Amino acid sequence: MSIKEAQARIKARVWQSVAQTDLDLSALDKSTLESFVDLVTESALLEIDSELDMAKLATPQPEAKEEEEDEFGEEILWQGRPFLSLVMDYTVTNERIKITSGLLGKAHENVELIRIQDIDHSQTFGERVLKIGDITIRSHDPSHPEIVLRNVQDPSSVYEILRRAVLEARKRHNFSYREEM
After folding, report:
1. Among 103, 77, 89, 6, which residue's Cα sits nearest to residue 53?
2. I want to staple 123 with a disulfide (CB 3.0 to 4.6 A). Which of 47, 72, 127, 134 is the partner?
C-alpha cells in the first residue's frame, strides 16, 4: 500500500468516525473541519511510522551484519528506511550505499560511492508536510544506473551526507571526474 493510499484510508476512517459521533460540530465551518481531519490524518501516519521504528529497534539484529561492517572497516554515515516500511533498509557508508529489502528472504543492492555521477532530491507537497522525500542517485554502475531512495526522512540532510561522502570517496581514491564540453 502506498503512502497516498494509506493516507486516504485513514482520512476516510476519520471522516466516518466524525459522522458517527454524537458531538455537535455544526459550529465549525467546513474548512476548519477539513483542516482538523487533515491534521488528525497526518498525526496518525506519523504515529504509525514511529511505532514501526520502535518495532524495528525491538527486533534483534543478526551478528553477521555487524561483523561484515567491522571486517571491511566501513564507517556508517547514515541508516534509515522508507516511511511506513518494515521490509527495506538503506545504509550509507564511507564506501557505498547498501539497500536491503525483504521480510523473510533478503535482497541486497550495493552502489559504490565513486561510481555515483549525480544525486538529486525531491518532495511533493504531501511529502513536505510529513518531512519525507525521494533521493535519486545516477551512477556508472551497469546493474543499477539509477536508484531511488523513496520516502526518506529529512531528505535534504541525507542528500548532503551523500554528497559529502561521494566527494570524500573520490578524494580518498584519487578519482577525478571530467565532463566533456
Report:
1. 89
2. 127
pLDDT tens-digit profile of 53-87?
Answer: 666 555 445 444 444 453 467 888 998 989 888 88
Q: Give me the residues paired with residue 142 across strands.
A: none
Look at domain 63-172 and name its CATH class.
mainly beta
Number of helices and strands in the chain (H, E): 5, 7
Three cell numbers at 71?
571486517
What are the boundaries of each domain within the chain?
Answer: 3-58, 63-172
Distance from C-alpha of 157 to C-alpha of 164, rounded to nearest angstrom: 11
Residue 17: which H helix or E strand, with range? helix 3-20
The pTM assigned to this predicted structure is 0.65
H or E element that contains 119? strand 116-122
